[in-house]
Design a protein that fits this description.
By secondary structure, the chain is α/β, with parallel strands linked by helices. The protein is built from ten helices and 17 strands. The strands form four sheets. It has a seven-stranded mixed beta sheet. α1 packs across α9, α3 runs parallel beside α4 and α7 crosses α10. The termini are far apart.
């Protein structure tokens, strides 16, 4: 691998630009080009001395010899075709979650990358969060014995649903984080899924349900309960600009084992503010700014991807991991629509 790995960014929305900013700070990488069908001019990526080349068609970006790997951060229903194009062009792939919207597309993504010398790493960011990773380490070290029950809550402000404009349900966009964590901790196959939803103001405004509770039964007996919503009111968590003082949400996780328990609580993330707009809880973990540079989980995730490309690390968030989470999401949707438990 060359001294600097060339990165192409496909999709310049919120997550795509976070990754672009993170890679721009990595001395062993450079942003070669970006692509987005709605671009009219090069995006401003902090950390770069000059604008990067940009394309409205990702296939033009994939033709470049200075692109070694791509970040795909487009809407999930577009993932399959772009992954196929990228793999055919010989580019390694970092794919933002969720892997796809159908099992057929997920299988195609996995098949297309596993049959070639293409490295596919899923963007499950919590696997690169120190606190979640310490829980995994404790499980692996048998600190709490066999995990029995996992409860995870991730409730986001209503502004997050508005940013997405009702494009996806909350389980597709947010629950998938904690579903993946449950698989990571239990290291087991899910066999049964059930789910209940609550419809309220978010449904009336955007046409997607406000909250969902998902129950997952694992083959070896483990049980996970995932609570997710984006119905926190503006009065509870205020999102503002600048981004460093935006709101995060209500996040916690408990893992109970045969010999002990582990607890994670992000309410708030160590710092709180209040002004005439209300309470504010800034993100201090996932992608905060430190002296003008992005730090936190996303930077660690992208650094890890570069190590994977240099054969210094093994992929710990695979396409199969992405498919496992998607299977539970789709089963949960069947469950609340049909009013019954779904067997996998």
């Amino acid at each position: 691998m060359k001294d600097k790995i060339g990165i192409g960014i496909i999709g310049t929305g919120f997550m795509g630009m976070l990754h672009a900013r993170a890679f721009a700070q990595c001395p062993d990488a450079h942003i070669s080009a970006v692509s987005d069908p709605v671009l009219t001019e090069p995006p401003d990526i902090p950390g770069l001395s000059k604008p990067v080349d940009f394309y409205t068609d990702h296939r033009q970006l994939l033709k470049r010899h200075d692109v070694d790997a791509v970040v795909i951060a487009t809407p999930e229903n577009l993932h399959r075709d772009i992954v196929v194009d990228a793999a055919s062009a010989g580019k390694h792939i970092f794919l933002e979650k969720p892997i796809a919207t159908t099992i057929e597309d997920a299988d195609a993504i996995i098949s297309e990358t596993s049959g070639q010398k293409i490295k596919l790493m899923m963007g499950h960011i919590l696997r690169f969060d120190t606190r979640y990773a310490q829980i995994k380490a404790a499980v692996d070290e048998n600190t709490i014995g066999k995990p029995l029950v996992c409860y995870a809550r991730r409730n986001a402000p209503v502004q997050e649903a508005r940013r997405l404009g009702g494009r996806v349900e909350v389980e597709e966009y947010i629950s998938v984080h904690d579903i993946d964590q449950a698989f990571w901790y239990f290291s087991d196959k899910a066999v049964k899924v059930s789910a209940e939803i609550v419809e309220g103001p978010v449904m009336k405004e955007l046409g997607v349900h406000d909250f969902i509770w998902i129950t997952i039964r694992f083959k070896k007996g483990g049980l996970a309960v995932i609570e997710t919503g984006w119905g926190l009111s503006e009065g509870m968590v205020k999102w503002t600009r600048p981004a460093s003082w935006g709101g995060f949400g209500d996040v916690c996780l408990e893992l109970i084992g045969e010999k002990g328990s582990l607890y994670l609580d992000y309410r708030p993330m160590g710092i709180t503010a209040v002004d005439d707009e209300g309470w504010k809880f800034p993100d201090t973990l996932h992608w905060p700014l430190l002296h003008g540079e992005i730090v936190g989980d996303i930077l660690e995730e992208d650094r890890y991807f570069l190590k994977v490309l240099r054969d210094e690390r093994e992929i710990i968030s695979t396409g199969e991991d992405g498919k496992n989470a998607l299977e539970v999401v789709l089963a949960a949707q069947r469950s609340y629509r049909e009013g019954k438990q779904i067997s996998l």
